[in-house]
Design goal:
Distance between the termini: 85 Å
Largest sheet: 3 strands, antiparallel
Structural class: mainly alpha
Number of domains: 2
Shape: globular
Oligomer: single chain
Strand content: under 5%
Number of strands: 3
Helix content: 40-55%
CATH superfamily of the largest domain: Intergrase catalytic core
CATH class of the largest domain: Mainly Alpha
């Protein structure tokens, strides 16, 4: 088997860096590899066999190549999000080469990613949320914790990373408030509804004490949510709990890590909440980030139309 040339060697070293230094999950690592194999093939077709031979115009041409690619039916082969993701991989490779001293400049630094259309965040219906919140059965410590997780995510709209970062001192059940440390270390105070408070109180009274271990006393910050070993619950484990609950009630294909956050915001706006209140609740720095939730779902649009339009119902307005 022939020795890899300089381009192949650097791509292999970057791959090792992604796996070892950055610790990417297998799926993420596989996506980077696919994108960079495609990029490597593009470079080789242009006779480029070394990262030092790549110019800004080369990277720009590659992005344009992806944008213009068509399938057999004439449709775009790559969606804007796919092109943007491919550029992330390309930038990662060139930044790695620069940081490691293999090249003197990063040719991808000034290349802009295509604008990805912002759609309506996926939200569950209120009935689906009710099913999800009722998916955890039993009263053992883990069940009490898992119910507290689901109820709190929907009641407060916090991110999973924010939830697992909570300490017991952040929670004020008497006043129904929780102190949250969000993105950029920005702190906000979020209200908690009655049902979530009751579920949290039961977890703190009967569930958490059973999950405590000697190691718990050494964990920084006195975490609110504990794992089976007495340590702080991780973001990945919390998402697995949400995902498993969704599978039990047939929602596996509808879930994402932010699904209850999206649903909380959507349902509040549909019930008349002021958008600036929702912005504060979610911890959005910009109102434009929250405004995406104001886009009306087709189901909601149809329901309001049928209630409000005088000729929407059969027989209305006819002799």
């Amino acid at each position: 088997m022939p020795e890899p040339d300089e381009l192949g060697r650097l791509l292999a070293e970057h791959d090792t860096w992604l796996a070892v230094e950055r610790g990417l999950a297998p799926n993420s690592l596989a996506a980077y590899r696919r994108d960079l194999r495609r990029y490597e093939a593009f470079l080789r077709r242009r006779g480029i066999t070394d990262a030092a031979g790549v110019r800004e115009a080369t990277v720009a041409a590659y992005v344009e190549h992806l944008k213009r690619a068509r399938d057999d039916d004439g449709h775009p082969r790559y969606a804007p999000a796919s092109v943007a993701r491919a550029l992330v991989a390309v930038r990662s490779f060139h930044r790695f080469c620069l940081d490691e001293g293999f090249v003197d400049e990063d040719p991808s630094e000034e290349i802009g990613a295509p604008r990805v259309p912002q759609g309506i965040p996926k939200a569950l219906t209120e009935a689906e949320v009710e099913a999800l919140l009722g998916a955890v059965e039993g009263d053992d410590p883990r069940a009490l914790r898992d119910r507290a997780i689901l109820e709190t995510l929907y009641a407060t709209g916090v991110r999973i990373s924010e939830l697992v970062g909570l300490d017991r001192a952040d929670l004020d059940l008497e006043d129904g408030l929780v102190r949250v440390l969000g993105k950029g270390a920005k702190e906000r105070v979020v209200p908690i509804g009655r049902t979530a408070r009751e579920v949290l109180a039961e977890y703190l009274w009967r569930g958490r004490p059973e999950l405590e271990r000697p190691v718990t006393r050494t964990v920084p910050g006195d975490p609110l949510l504990l794992n089976a070993r007495g340590g702080r619950l991780t973001r990945q484990s919390c998402w697995k709990i949400v995902s498993a609950a969704g599978e039990r009630v047939g929602l596996a294909g509808r879930l994402s890590p932010h699904v209850l956050r999206h649903s909380c915001a959507t349902h509040m706006l549909e019930h008349g909440a002021d958008i600036r209140v929702v912005q504060e609740l979610l911890g959005h720095a910009s109102l434009s980030t929250t405004q995406v939730y104001t886009k009306v779902s087709p189901e909601r649009l149809r329901a309001v139309y049928e209630l409000a339009h005088p000729r929407a119902r059969s027989g209305v307005g006819r002799e």
